[in-house]
Design goal:
Elements lengths: L2 E4 L9 H17 L2 E6 L9 H13 L6 E5 L4 H13 L3 E4 L22 H9 L5 E4 L6 E5 L3 E5 L8 E3 L7 H11 L4 E5 L6 H11 L5 E5 L2 E2 L15 H7 L3 H10 L13 H7 L10 E2 L2 H13 L3 H8 L10 H10 L10 H9 L6 H7 L5 H14 L4 H14 L4 H13 L7 H8 L1 H15 L1
Parallel strand pairs: 1-2, 2-3, 9-10, 11-12
Antiparallel strand pairs: 4-5, 5-8, 6-7
Helix pairs in contact: 1-9, 5-6, 8-10, 15-16, 15-19
The chain binds one RNA strand of 75 nucleotides through strand 7, helix 5, strand 12, helix 10 and helix 17.
Amino acid sequence: MIRVRFAPSPTGSLHLGSLRTAIVNFLFARKMQASFVLRIEDTDQQRSTEESTRVILDNLQWMGITFDEGPFFQTRRITSHQEYARSLVQNHQAYQCFCPQNEGTNEAFQSKDPCRELSTQAVEANLRQHLPHVIRLRIPDTPIVFHDLIKGEVSFQGGLLEDFVIVRSDGTPTYNFAVVADDHDMGITHVIRGEDHLSNTPKQIALYHAFSWVIPYFAHIPLILGSDKTKLSKRHCDTAIEDYKEKGFLAETLFNYLALLGYTHDPANPILSKEDLIKNFSWDKVSRSASQFDLQRLYWMNKQNLDRLSEEEYLQKASSWIPDLPFTEEKKNRIALLSRNQVKVWSDLPAVFSIFQTYSLPLAEAHLLLSGNQSVSPFLAQVKNELSLSDFSLDSIQKVIEREIEQLALKKRDAMQWLRIAVTGSTVSPALYETIQLLGQEETMHRLGIFLEQRQ
RNA sequence: GGCCCCCUCGUCUAACGGUUAGGACAUCGCCCUUUCACGGCGGCAAUAGGAGUUCGAUUCUCCUGGGGGCUGCCA
């Protein structure tokens, strides 16, 4: 039985890079019909918070990433970790180290810790005195080679790894130790994680050797970079999932984008469903190099996804983003549908509603389009007159406007833009006839009146 | 510094060792058009550098350069 896990540490919100790791785990698990385990790595007591655990869980649920087991919490397994450490010390695979904690003496690397060869008597004497100590793994002097599902063969020279700490002086296990113990106990067969863990892998393999445990498969996913090719951080853009949720991206867009970032795909057809992504998942499609995060492409993908929604789906998903206005549901829905093409993310919705909400006189730049043209006022005045007598059906609104354009021998393109500016106060709006109808006769008259007046 | 990973248009990516090095996003121009958006057509744009192997290298090998990661009693 194949078993994989996603193991975030709850020291902040879920990062885009972590999310991609979760996605790859998820795709592989579902493709292989494997068990997917969620484990919260909270061994850093200083920085771990329940709040971020909750946020991470929420984000994963929002993304539709489901688990078969968990969440398990690493700290609940401390006694088990300590058992393992004791057995390692008994077998001389690990040893107590009584050296004082290095305080920033970032000097040349010492491969051999002085406590490594301490006699049993000396160790016992120290323990009797309750001297603070850590437990270090005794790392053999042999090269470590493993096959990574993404990187291929990776080899580390022996003798270069230090005897790293597996249990801190306060008795808690360190990350590299806890991971190995947990992955083993949980029967994890494939360890899929970010490339920042690649250099940890030989240490962890040394632990597997020490315990004579079966070594799992490893897959190290390249990192996501920012626009300057350094590791993606807040300096570049938002990195937390909830930021994208709050901006009004669809979860499926983020999933789709991240799944295809650094992944071979048909460029002519980059919008894929979760099911297709699962079906087509394969390790040889995962790029070996890091990729840059491209926000513009994410926006583009979201627009593509929005365009594919049916009207019902669109309105249903849009509903929580539609501003609270004294309009009927029907009117709100009509506005939402009419303005669809101006919405790339849901947070664009309030802006497109604003022209129906309040009338503000056009900005200076819009006025520039109108200045100097003698036909603007007569045309608008005529339209106002005619519309006031009209039954305000879509059909008659259109007929009135087109008739005036014809009578004054105007270019439709120009005249429509004048009218748009006058009625909406903006150079951009949804389709004008519909917009005018939605505004209603009274409001349209009112706005044209104000506009003509201030144009005197 | 040491160890490890990586390197094709600005970005994401194609290319059994043989292609005019392809596509998509972005950008620019044109068309469509009632503005925006969509769509259509077209332009600009890449094999990091140098050796080697080979009839032939984006592809294989080595060196240099660049980027990243690890080098914590963080994960």
